[in-house]
Amino acid sequence: MKLSIKGLTLAGGMIWALAILVVGILNIIFSEYGGEFLKLMASVYPGYKASGEIVDVIVGTLYALLDGAIAGFVFALLYNAFVGKVKKAAPKRAARRKRPAAKKRPAAKKSTGSTGPKMR
Q1: Which of 32, 49, 59, 105 is deepest in the core (most CB within 10 A)?
Q2: Is the model's pTM score more than 0.85?
Q3: Measured between alpha carbons, how far is 73 from 14 in angstroms, rounded to an integer?
Q4: SS3 3
Q5: Angle 103-106-107 (CA atoms, 0-180°, nearest 5)?
Q6: Residue 36 CA to its chain's centroid (Å)
Q7: Residue 103 burial (10 A CB sphere; 0-12, 13-18, 19+)
């Protein structure tokens, strides 16, 4: 099964942008929250500063949207490239149909006499 490149690109961008946005907003509300993480992101994204201002949160969110979209795109491309290269397993056999239970034959009647020819 191959991945949707467009879907994974959009999902990756939105998830990473949402993560940066939430951490940025929480950093504005609680000044210590996520400070080291945002400083790390500031070292990766040029023009973004972890100053705790709303403008910086928006800039960081836009960078994260682009960054996550690129990561999702590359992941989907690589996955789709390798999914066809792997040796495919034997196809699954169709589920066997249940056959009705075999009818039991009636037991042979036991005779009271001998089974061989009668000797006099």
Answers
A1: 59
A2: no
A3: 13
A4: coil
A5: 135
A6: 30
A7: exposed
User: Residues 98-116: pLDDT tens digits?
Assistant: 666 677 777 776 666 656 6
d(CA 66, CA 16): 9
Quote the CA–CA distance of 90 and 8 in Å, as a whole number.
29
5 Cβ neighbours under 8 A, 6+ residues apart:
73, 76, 77, 80
Q: Is 114 exposed, middle or buried (0-12, 13-18, 19+ CB in 10 A)?
A: exposed
Cα–chain center distance at 109: 64
Q: Report whether 1 contacts 76 (CB < 8 A).
A: no
Helix runs in 3-113, H state only: 5-29, 35-44, 54-83
